[in-house]
Amino acid sequence: MENQESLPTFLSSSWYNYNITIFYIPFYQLILHCLYHSLSFINLSISQYLEDKYPHHYPLLPQDIHKRAINYQPANIVSSSIQPLQKIATLKCIEEKISSDPDVKLAWAQHYIKKGFVALERLLKDYAGRIATGDEVYLADLFLAPQIHAAIKRFNVDVTRFPLLSKLNEAYNEIPAFQDAMLEKQPDTTLASAS
Fold first, then answer.
1. Topology (CATH) of 9-194
2. Residue 81 exposed, middle or buried by CB count within 10 Å (0-12, 13-18, 19+)
């Protein structure tokens, strides 16, 4: 990737353990990089800040107020109803308090991912175009792309059961910024730590 400077920062506590790299690359890739690193729980606020501060550079939300509202809903579903229930700290707690069986943790994550995907399919069925809410990349896409990717790669979710999300995943796989931001493509990430 061009024009990037890697500034690795290691955050560690009992709640999270992340290696964050800041890249001076196009706006969407910065946000996607954060999301692929499972930081969507803080990134909705960051996304809203960036949209308010730089609305004309790379708009995250459409001008139409109805479409803006539709974009917030998938971002909220991912950041509050799916991602917190599949994050490392949650799965570690399940391992410590419920079962050390990896299949139990996987089943837990899959359950909440699938439940969220059902809601996303219903929500977006009347709004999707080439991507989530039409043909332009907006906030919904920035949350959906890494979530669908994680569901497939980390949690073995069969997304063919979700035809709209499968279609969106195919579209995201054709967008260079989405591909460049994938966790597996970051210089500070090994495949072992990505899963």
1. Glutathione S-transferase Yfyf (Class Pi); Chain A, domain 2 (1.20.1050)
2. middle
Beta bridge partners of 20: 9
- At which residue do the structure tokens 């967008």 appear? 175
Confidence of residue 15 (pLDDT cuts 50, 70, 90): very low
Q: How far is CA 12 from the centre of its chain?
A: 21
What is the helix (H) or strand (E) element at residue 11, kind and residue range? strand 9-12
Between vectors from CA 63 to CA 61 and to CA 65, what angle results, nearest 5°? 90
The predicted model scores a pTM of 0.76
Name the maximum alpha-carbon separation found in the chain. 49
The per-residue pLDDT for range 145-170, each reduced to its tens digit, is 989 999 999 999 999 999 999 999 99
Mean pLDDT across 84-99: 87
- On the question of pLDDT at 32 being above 90, the answer is no
User: Phi and psi dihedrals of 144, rounded to 5?
Assistant: -70, -45
Under 8 Å between Cβ of 3 and 24: yes
148: nearest Cα among 130, 133, 127, 170: 170
Please, are residues 62 and 131 in contact by the beta-carbon 8 Å criterion?
no
What kind and span of H or E run contains 9? strand 9-12
Give the residue among 8, 29, 25 at the shortest CA–CA distance from 179: 29
What value does the mean pLDDT take over residues 9-23? 36
The domain limits of the chain are 9-194
